[in-house]
Amino acid sequence: MLTARERTMGADHPDTLRCRHNLAFNLGRLGRTEDAHRMAREVAAARARVLGPGHPDTLVTRYEVAYELGRLDRWQEALATYREVAAARARALGPDHPDTFAARYETGVALGRLGRCAEALTAYEALIADRARAQGADHPETLRARHGRGVNLGRLGRWGEALEEARAVCAARGRVLGPDHPDTLVSHREVAVALGWLGRWAAALTEYRLVAAARERVLGPDRPDTLVARDDEAHCLEQLGRAAEAADLYRRVAALRSVAAR
Known about the structure:
Layout: H1 2-9, H2 14-29, H3 33-50, H4 56-71, H5 75-92, H6 98-113, H7 117-135, H8 140-155, H9 159-177, H10 182-197, H11 201-219, H12 224-239, H13 243-261
Helix pairs in contact: 1-2, 2-3, 2-4, 3-4, 4-5, 5-6, 6-7, 7-8, 8-9, 8-10, 9-10, 10-11, 11-12, 12-13
């Protein structure tokens, strides 16, 4: 399709560029990150030239460039690009547009990845206030920003506050999305992580087992997320001094991974 569009419409036609953007997106999801990054950069430059640097389509592709930079662990460049996209979207679409909020969220992610956790916390808190005002306190994306806030509280060693936030977000996600939704289970895991850092390993084990059981029920026993949850459970058993149980669980997880890899 791309070759046909280039031949009939030209390489810089907006429909051709849309096809190339979609190709870059799918290359990234197939794990071909370098190829995806290179193509997204080319499309972003072409869209800026043809449509203008502030056009929503140009910004969508620049957002994809930033995403692939993160996948390549080039977080400083990703941060700069996300910030530029967020500012341009605020001008073009408005400060409360969902796409503007999305770029601001990814700015917080990049700051956290760079270890600039206090700045990330500030970014998330501002985003939470704006999303709650524009979309509602229980909107899934408001809750996602609150999850990011909790993660960075933990990175800053503020584990009591992190636990409080994780529990609140978990309860809200369970109510809004359902108890077995992936985001709800991620929050249960965050509760467990905070409990572990606070030395409350027995309570953490309850949370880890809840996550593992739910993922096994919803996804299946040999799915990657289920196996990660079982690894968490085994680590927690080790911390509780239950080494034999932990070793048995690690063996079962390794066997399931081996079968799944065939």
